[in-house]
Amino acid sequence: MKPDDFPRLQVWIENFRENPVIKANLPDPDELLTHSKQKRESPAFFAFFRGVGEEQEKATKEARQLLKIIEDHGLGEKKFFGGNKIGLADLAFGWLSAWHEVMEEVVGVKLMEANSFPRLEAWTKSFKEDPMIKENLPDRDEMLTYFKSLREKFIASATT
């Protein structure tokens, strides 16, 4: 696998490589890229974004169940998954902090409401406010444009 297969992930790896927490826990970049290619989305979250009608309703329920499990059993009462500092689990779930709002906007369905997932919402806010994370988040407008285009393609293929 070549780094240009996943350019944004490669940039992310390079940017975070010097962070002491990451440096101590980051697997080999080739291993991370390979794993990312194999597991780049959760089927429930992908179906939520890709689906229409009943398929999307089912995926929305499943994604909300997963969020509840993540909140209750992963995050619990902690600020971050590992405690008071960002750790590897936070980085693994970090895509939620940037992508879920854009996905919700494009789909037109609110998946993660603050009153339903208050601890995940608090985690999202804390995660995105960390200077290292904030500095490296993808541009929201670029993501919105990309996700809108992708969603249109999914809808077009579902109706043909």
Automatic annotation (TrEMBL):
<dbReference type="InterPro" id="IPR036282">
    <property type="entry name" value="Glutathione-S-Trfase_C_sf"/>
</dbReference>
<dbReference type="InterPro" id="IPR045073">
    <property type="entry name" value="Omega/Tau-like"/>
</dbReference>
<dbReference type="GO" id="GO:0006749">
    <property type="term" value="P:glutathione metabolic process"/>
</dbReference>
<dbReference type="GO" id="GO:0005737">
    <property type="term" value="C:cytoplasm"/>
</dbReference>
<dbReference type="InterPro" id="IPR004046">
    <property type="entry name" value="GST_C"/>
</dbReference>
<dbReference type="InterPro" id="IPR010987">
    <property type="entry name" value="Glutathione-S-Trfase_C-like"/>
</dbReference>
<dbReference type="GO" id="GO:0004364">
    <property type="term" value="F:glutathione transferase activity"/>
</dbReference>
<keyword id="KW-0808">Transferase</keyword>
<protein>
    <recommendedName>
        <fullName>glutathione transferase</fullName>
        <ecNumber>2.5.1.18</ecNumber>
    </recommendedName>
</protein>
<dbReference type="Pfam" id="PF00043">
    <property type="entry name" value="GST_C"/>
</dbReference>
<feature type="domain" description="GST C-terminal">
    <location>
        <begin position="19"/>
        <end position="147"/>
    </location>
</feature>
<dbReference type="InterPro" id="IPR045074">
    <property type="entry name" value="GST_C_Tau"/>
</dbReference>
